[in-house]
Write the structure tokens for this entry.
Amino acid sequence: MTVLVTGSAGFIGANFVLDWLAASDEPIVSLDKLTYAGNLANLRSVEANSRHTFVQGDITDRELLGRLLAEHKPRAIINFAAESHVDRSIEGPEDFVQTNVVGTFRLLEAAREYYQALGENEAEQFRLLHVSTDEVYGSLAPAEPAFREDRKYEPNSPYSASKAASEHFVRAWHHTYGLPVLTTNCSNNYGPYHFPEKLIPLIIHNALSGKALPIYGDGQQVRDWLFVKDHCAAIRRVLDAGVAGETYNIGGCNEKTNLEVVHTLCDILDQERPRADGISYREQISFVRDRPGHDRRYAIDASKIERELGWVPAETFESGIRKTVLWYLDNQDWVNDITSGAYREWVSRQYQ
Ligand code: NAD
Ligand code: DAU
């Protein structure tokens, strides 16, 4: 048996591939367009692994998808491929519609044709797992209960609107065509291989480079943080035991304001790599223009996946964030390779 993983050279997709190959004997075919966010260095440690086949390609390429499915006959497809950065979606939403909406639609169509031609046993086993986000639910008021799976969708950014749209297609392909799909809605991930345009790796990178640590608005926006490997374990569990057609919220029960997160990062860096002048990295914090339409608070109620599938996160925020900072300190070459020309152009446009 084989599984097909899309978006495998990105942050979560790469962590998923590495963990899968370490934990199971099953081969992976992995597909990634290698956009600015896709990085083959994330998969370098499994380059020579005979159970891993990497294909560079686009999920909007219906013919390629058909060929890959016919050739590798996977028992499952796990779809991570997406444009994922909210700020970039505000600057240029088109790519988000193309990959997140059209790409998901093409993947569903390819999967439908493949599924309908499977024998009875293979069809019974087959699953398409679509990886989505808590951002589809919109923003919570301070005292509101955390998002449950039955929460209405209120996406506020071009990114979250494109992810919500993709989920509606996934749902419809189950309802109308009987495609056995699973959808997961996860909160903010952090950990190794996180692209340094996102808050946590950006702050670590800027701190070590002596640059300002940009906090949007008042820094009181709240996110729920989950260590990436816990997200990968949850996806494996949903794939194994989730009920086709169901959605599962995944979260870490770690609500933090952005300012708290940045203070924590500064404190760990102060211990692990103190500044030469002995002053705290907190001195580099700078409040900057807010993100347009910035969602104030996300929080996940993960009781369904815990109750029905027995998944709980292994890391606390304290243990996961320390591991993450140490990983970045040990992998400065990885960061230096990424933060080249195109990355610098993005940073200067975004924070000018
Ligand atoms: P990422 O931006 O790091 O990686 C996305 C990957 O998809 C990249 O390798 C990119 O090259 C690839 N890709 C983009 N367009 C493609 C296309 N048309 N065809 C094939 N590959 C393409 O994103 P991530 O943070 O790893 O997120 C992965 C998935 O998880 C996304 O669907 C995202 O919406 C979802 N998600 C992310 C988080 C988070 O905190 N990062 C939380 C919840 C859900
Ligand atoms: O909630 C899940 C989502 O989490 C995923 O679906 C997205 O793909 C992922 O990018 C992430 O979205 P966020 O917008 O929450 O993540 P980001 O790291 O961009 O920002 C986290 C918070 O920090 C957010 O409130 C904006 C703020 N921020 C971000 C940056 C980059 C800053 O204050 N300064 C910054 O420079």
